[in-house]
Amino acid sequence: MNGVFSFFKDRRVLITGDTGFKGSWLSHWLNMLGADVTGYALPPKNRGDLFNQLRLQRRIHHVNGDIRNSAGLRKVFLHFRPEIVFHLAAQSLVRVSYADPAGTIETNVAGSAHLLDAVRRQPSVRALIYITSDKCYLNKEWAWAYRENDELGGRDPYSASKAAAELIFASYSASYFADRKTLGAASVRAGNVIGGGDWAIDRIVPDCIRALQKNRAIELRHPSAVRPWQHVLDPLYGYLVLAARLHAHPKDFSGSWNFGPSIHSSRTVHEVALYFWR
Hints:
Strand content: 15-25%
Shape: globular
Oligomer: single chain
Largest sheet: 7 strands, parallel
CATH class: Alpha Beta
CATH architecture: 3-Layer(aba) Sandwich
Helix content: 40-55%
Distance between the termini: 10 Å
CATH superfamily: NAD(P)-binding Rossmann-like Domain
CATH topology: Rossmann fold
Radius of gyration: 18 Å
Number of domains: 1
């Protein structure tokens, strides 16, 4: 798999949401691979956030900005001329979406539209990885995993915003990206991830650590719920492989992809990535 790692050396990569949990890990990884990384995101909220712990401010080009600011985003595209774009900027918490539904929709829907429009206007982009969530699927409470062609939808503001973001991606893909022979664009959908540096609220591992630090009993908000989990580096590795494949074969790999563990198979994200790289 050395090919996928060497591919990113000296590539101009733009990451929206680089100060977030997954965005920080992705920025760190790409920096280690020798990519020329620029990040666009709100400043990290806390001193202990992974972005600060990894000292990414000193290692990548970071621009403080809001994904809802189309002019600021477009300026970064014009100045940096990215070849590969990873879009992770989002309001990512379900309970926050109940408290601020309009803000969640503005960030996850309008902000994503601004990103897609910047890609549309920037001819340097060769590969777009557009991260949403497995919550973009209409939850039918069935026993099997959702497939990429299953119905989209959401009964809470966060899920609805992710389903809407997927519809906007599909419209841009059909209306603008399909005719660009050198651009590959994919939406990627992953579920719950765990890993070092995640201090977000309402996530099971960070909540457990905070309880232990305060010598309190660990409280599970939904003890009967069953959700798949994967380590944060698994889907990120898949995103990297997919980006490289989109660059090499734009139309063969464009579309929507799920990244996650399977209860019906022993296949891992790493094995799926090997399929991409063949």
